[in-house]
Amino acid sequence: MPLKPPLISLGLISATALAYEILLMRLFSIIQWHHFAYMIISLALLGYGISGTLVSLLQARFLKPIPVITYPLFLMLFSLSCFGCFLAAQNIPFNPEAILWDIQQIWYLLGIFLTLSIPFLLAASAICLIFIYYPDHIAKIYGVDLLGAGLGSIGVIFLLFFVFPETALLIISLMGLVATLIALKETQLLAGIFSLTIVLSAIILISTAHYFQLEISPYKDLSKTLNIQGTKIIEQRSSPLGLLSIVESNKIPFRHAPGLSLYNSQEPAEQLGLFSDATGMTAITHYPDELEKLSYLDQLTSALPYHLNDIQRLLVVGAGGGSDILQAQLHKTEKIDAIELNQQIIALLSDQFAQYSGNIYLNDKITIHSGDVRGLLNKRFHSDYDLIQISLMDSFNASASGLYAMHESYLYTIEALQTYLQHLKPDGYLAISRWIKTPPRDTIKMFATAISVLKKNQVSSAAQHLVLIRGWQTSTLLVKSNPFTQDEVERLKQFCQARAFDVVWYPGIEADETNRFNRYKQAWFYQAAKALLNDSSQQFMKDYKYYVYPASDDKPFFHHFFKWSVLQELLSLRNQGGLALIEMGYIVLLATLILAVISSVILIILPLLVFYFYSTKNKILFLPILDRMQLFSYFFFIGLAFLLIEIAMMQKFILFLHHPIYSIPVILTGFLIFAGLGSLWTKHLLTKLSPRQVLLNAIIAIVGLGMIYGYFLSSFFSIMATYSITIKIILSLIAIAPLAFCMGIPFPLALTALGSSNKAYIPWAWGVNGCASVISAVLASLLAIHLGFNLVIIIALGLYMSCFFIFIMPGTKVLNHNG
Amino acid sequence: MKQTRQRKKTGFILLISLAFILLFISISLLASSMEDHYMQKRQQMVHLIEQDVLQTSQYLNTEALDPKVLQVINTVPRHKFVIPETLEDAYQNTPLPIGYGQTISQPYIVAVMTDLLKLSATDSVLEIGTGSGYQAAVLSELVEHVYSIEIIEPLGKQAEQRFKELGYKNISTRIADGYYGWEEHAPFDAIIVTAAGTHIPHTLIEQLKPGGRMMIPVGSNFMTQQLLLISKDNDGQLQTQQILPVRFVPLTGKH
């Protein structure tokens, strides 16, 4: 065995494995739904945990050093399985929508995540082998592992801007094979046949990839649309944000106009369907020769503000295919600012479909901005809008089934609404349209949020500043800094009467005016609005069967409505459609956590059983129970704490960097690279200080820095809000660098100690840490929903502190044997 | 010698005939026992639906479903409308996939929707979204004629064939865009839109008779969130009702 560890191939394989993880998320978001993609990938990462078991078994099998050839062999199998396992997994006919009906779907789900865990198992086992081969270089190996992973995460995001996810999968598999060839060279193995196999594998991969295509679920909107005669995809664009598909329908028009009044008699204009990740259809409307042909857009609840006052200056949030802009043009709005997060939608409407859409994004009166509304509003925007329009930002089905529960959204928080109001004229309107869910949820939560904001703005009577109407499918809430006038109220009544929309709230409303056209068993919307405006609002939110407390920047989960107290009732009503009322997003998150915990327990116990079995034959494997407990808790807590902080930071930085697409790679890469550097520095520190001292210093620094971030991050964000995104990315990296650097120390420090006292337990410690990381990633989201990100960080700091005490636990020898 | 051969031949023919007769009898017995098996399952399913309705009665404004509706659910062979892979689950009270990303609805929802349409024997009904054809078959047993439109060609053809085989003579099908309804046979006493777009076309509202009812299930393929019932009064005024098919009150207590 060579003296030096094979660091190049190791770094490359870490990079490839992390890139594969991010790519799988992208691929499964296209072929399945995002929340199940999250579940599947989280569970597949348990492959890291299984690697501990696998290497333990190999150790037990050989009872001597595992042959060096195993390392490149694992790398090659990893590379091939990246492609092969995805191919197999996407052909498993899993249908998440039927999961509550059909027990077989659970087996399919299990099949998918076990299949996808194979590549992670192989990659993690390869890394674990290097730890065992080179126990004196653990800090260096771990450092390179983290550095590689960091570069992999940023690399794949970069790659996804240029190639489709299918091609990215091929590139990643080939990168794995390159790493294998390098590994052969680094380990000085004379393996001509092996090299030849790798080259042949690469050729087979490239030729197979030609026939490979994504198997999108038949229940996704795009698949269903393509079953209709005369439909075809005419353009596709891909980016890390999603896969955009433009569909033309020759025979049967799309006629996308959600929430139209029943009294509308005009057929919507010609359209193209715009699908994001094969779902959530919106439309690109063909600009008609006469604007009157768009008059159906006046039959939507979102048209209300145009009937209350003259709208000269408008801000559209989430411009998409442009229907809000067309609606404004119909009402002769003079100046429109439109914000769209997805640059590719802007590109589509500015070039290929510019003419089709009437050059709306190139019009002199319209300025289109790419980015996130809060970031842009903080920067350079005007504060004199007559209207800020935010309409139906998510698809109905995903919204109705509660799939966004775990999605953070800084669009609908108390702080967000405060920002919007600051950018309006005193008589301007903030208009937020939402899908109507039955029983009502998000419309009520939005109303509660608006009340909260008005109270914070010290408005004497919030009831005077709010208007809420609903059709059969959508609701529109108007918030105004000045009170609504009697004249506006009269216009509002006329608007609703003419379109058979119901008034839910306006200043001076009477109960008998509500629930007239679109009737519910009771006037639920009005009752909720009234209760929220009076003194018993807290009691109302407590008693309501859905979670309707306003979202804040610390808990930005607007789409979270689930309450435990209601689960049993809905389950008992499952045969009558009760299941449709359960907020699935939360349940999926919880199920992921439970499955991860159960699997982890098994994965952690299995190697122990193996060790127990073989400890009678080989004394080196024996470890007293107290030491095992110490090892378990130390590596488990370190895994938990690292990911809790990393995930909380990723989420918090979304507000600063405007979108997960920047926040996730920047923070993830930053954490991995700086933690990697911290790990590399550990060996140097150990030459000067005892492990105990090094750990104590690192943990003091982590806790101190963590507290500082918890308290000052929001101020930091506001002070730096006006800088460009490039400067913000650099600032973010500088901000997290010291914390991440220190967080890179505790793991290799303890693993080095273990390597010199009982290296047989390295795979176990590695597996325990892997399991903890998987549990922690899911736990972070769940804890944040209930406690907020700041508390998640405080919990993680508590775990770090306890690690120090575990490390110095009296009566143990395995970690603290030098100190 | 020749006689022996002749006798052997006759014996052989008799034996073959007997075997065929036995085979025929066993197939008939098997078929009839399968039909009995499905009928039994169907009865169990109807019983479950009755119980569910009783629990939800307050929300559906009815103590029980119209016995005629339940009788029809008890008669229509749902197992003939499902794909072979789901045959065994045909009488589970759940939606089932039928291919092309579509489903056959949950029997409970079919029963509730049919009941809410308040149909009579002389009615003419329009259905948008034939799917498997099960809903149309249920309706056809209660009204004079059902006109059903399907947008997905293979599904429409399969349903048409199924209606022919099962002898549903009062169902007319068409593969077309449901947006414009079926002008030649309008107006209709009831319309059921199981494949709704993002809005309710004015053309369909126009094709609804005064006093008529339109039913639209809202939700995804496998989960009906709510039922939208549109009523047109004798003056042509419209009123919609959002009906939860389930007994669930979002708020209890006084607020």
Q: What's the helix and strand layout?
A:
The complex is a heterodimer of chains A (819) and B (255).
Chain A: H1 7-31, H2 34-44, H3 46-62, H4 70-90, H5 104-133, H6 138-162, H7 165-186, H8 192-209, H9 221-226, E1 231-239, E2 242-249, E3 271-276, E4 279-285, H10 304-308, E5 313-317, H11 323-330, E6 335-340, H12 343-350, E7 366-370, H13 373-379, E8 385-391, H14 396-400, H15 414-422, E9 424-435, H16 442-456, E10 466-470, E11 474-480, H17 486-499, E12 502-505, E13 518-519, H18 524-533, H19 537-543, H20 567-572, H21 584-615, H22 625-657, H23 660-686, H24 691-719, H25 725-743, H26 746-757, H27 762-787, H28 789-807
Parallel strand pairs in A: 5-6, 5-8, 6-7, 8-9
Antiparallel strand pairs in A: 1-2, 2-3, 3-4, 9-11, 10-11, 10-12
Chain B: H1 2-60, H2 67-75, E1 96-99, E2 102-104, H3 107-116, E3 124-128, H4 134-140, E4 145-150, H5 153-166, E5 171-175, E6 188-193, H6 202-206, E7 208-219, E8 224-232, E9 238-243
Parallel strand pairs in B: 3-4, 3-6, 4-5, 6-7
Antiparallel strand pairs in B: 1-2, 7-8, 8-9
Helix pairs in contact in B: 1-2, 1-3
Mean pLDDT metric of chain A: 88
Mean pLDDT of chain B: 86
Q: What is the CATH class name of chain B?
A: Alpha Beta
Largest interface: A-B, 65 and 57 residues
Find the structural class of chain A using helix and strand composition: alpha/beta
- Parts with pLDDT < 50 across at least 5 consecutive residues of chain B: none
| Global Rg of chain A | 28 Å
Largest sheet of chain B: 7 strands, mixed
Counted beta strands of chain B: 9
Share in helix of chain B: 40-55%
Give the CATH topology of the largest domain in chain A. Rossmann fold
Cα-to-Cα separation, first versus last residue of chain B: 104 Å
Q: If helices are DSSP runs of H or I spanning 4 or more residues, what is the number of helices of chain A?
A: 28
Structural class of chain B: alpha/beta
**CATH class call of the largest domain in chain A:** Alpha Beta
* Main sheet characteristics of chain A: 8 strands, mixed
Provide the CATH superfamily of the largest domain in chain A: Vaccinia Virus protein VP39
- Rg of chain B, nearest Å: 23 Å
